[in-house]
Write a structure and sequence with these properties.
Blueprint lengths: L3 E6 L4 H4 L13 E7 L3 H12 L4 E4 L15 E2 L7 H8 L1 H24 L11 E4 L3 H10 L12 E3 L16 E4 L3 E2 L2 H14 L3 E3 L6 E5 L2 E6 L2 E10 L10 H4 L3 E10 L4 H7 L5 E4 L5 E5 L6 E5 L8 H15 L8 E11 L6 E5 L2 E5 L6 H15 L27 H13 L3
Parallel strand pairs: 1-17, 2-3, 2-12, 3-9, 5-14, 12-19
Antiparallel strand pairs: 4-8, 5-7, 6-7, 10-11, 11-12, 13-16, 13-17, 14-15, 15-16, 18-19
Bound molecules: flavin-adenine dinucleotide (FAD).
Amino acid sequence: MSLFTTDFKESPYWWEAAPPEPASEQDLPKQVDVAIIGSGYTGLHAAIQTAQAGRTTLVLEAEAAGFGASTRNGGQVSTSIKGSLPELTRQFGAQRAVEILREGQASLDFMKDFIPAHKIDCDFQVDGRFHGAHTPKKYDQLARSIGVNAAVFSDDAFMIPKADQATEFDTAAYHGGIVYPHHASLHPAKYHRGLLGIARRHGAEIATHCRVKSLNRTAKGFELQTPKGPVRAGRVVLATNGYTGPLSPWQQRRIIPIGSYIIATEELPSDVMDRLMPTNRILSDTRKLVYYYRPSPDRKRILFGGRVSLRETDPRRTGPKLHAELVRLFPELAQTRISHSWSGFVGYTFDTLMHAGQEDGLYYAMGYCGSGVGMASYLGMRIGQQASDNPEGMTAFNKIPFQTRPFYTGNPWFLAPSVLAYRIRDRFGI
Ligand SMILES: Cc1cc2nc3c(=O)[nH]c(=O)nc-3n(C[C@H](O)[C@H](O)[C@H](O)COP(=O)(O)OP(=O)(O)OC[C@H]3O[C@@H](n4cnc5c(N)ncnc54)[C@H](O)[C@@H]3O)c2cc1C
């Protein structure tokens, strides 16, 4: 039996409900106040701010609008910060650690305010996250983590022991887990479509299929070269995250592009969905190579993602590997076929934190380390404020160094050995 449905697609399931827009035909303006490179959540939220502040704003996108991670992701919305208060304190000192964690909470709060305020139709639901322990030791670690950030915010997290796990998630593969009740989910491509509408209503222009090929400083700002001709801009915001390339070598030396892979299953009977995933929570686990999954917003399919290959490869190869992991959790899905398999690039950083600021006059926000639905939205908004001279735009991520490593120029040669090492650690429960 083929693992793929007859109408299988190598494109995101999300594009069924919100397909990419056709190419824009308009001529480019010769001069704008702000040019934004990249049309994902970062770029569009930045554009909403700069346009709202009365700056003429042009978003330039190499492919279709939202082509990058912003229409491909798992739609899981969390506080996005890797690291607890004690860990961040060791790294950055007590005050900065608190500021960083507050930004994480602010990004989640921002989504809960922004989406209803703008009535974005994107299946946004606050149903929480179940994070499964893949070993008993990890369960104990999760239990000890409760309240560790309480000085900054309360996440109201609670443990689900293995004996009660079926109330959350019908698998024998985990040793219980933790629930974060305030985490949320959305339909990534519908959310992106909503942002495009808001940015345009505020007067931002979005030029798609228009890659910025070079970026040169001038006396009054920048000149950008594109296939549709040059554009002069007083300010430029770089919003390219995992798709950052040689256009901006300083940022390229600091971003580690990592492919993340997802599948959608064919439709499952509602009684099976209700038994396997009785709640609408988003799901993830304690493995170093994290798997993330969830029911589709209509609860008919399972969307299942993770890093299943050592090197970047094509989604026809990763589909069966993700399927095997899905079946390890739910053996009864062995005959369930895959309807969609796709991938996208996340932007990792050497300190596993996101960064925002200005380098040589160029504004940037990036490095969400795979947790950017809320954070790219929030930091996009903040960097847009910074580019509009609004002092509210300053963030904790402006104040920490954006590290690189000697000889790293944007090609993560170390990825395959790292993935292999993590895979071994996960297998042995280390
Ligand atoms: C498979 C996958 C699953 C994920 N799941 C989750 C999740 O469940 N929860 C979560 O919080 N995060 C998740 N993420 C991460 C999240 O999607 C990203 O952090 C977020 O979308 C980043 O948004 P962005 O706007 O910064 O970048 P992107 O959306 O990646 O946009 C960058 C854009 O820049 C464009 N670009 C690059 N160079 C140029 C140029 N020279 N000229 C013009 N345009 C250019 C690219 O074409 C691209 O469209 C996932 C990511 C992936 C790939």
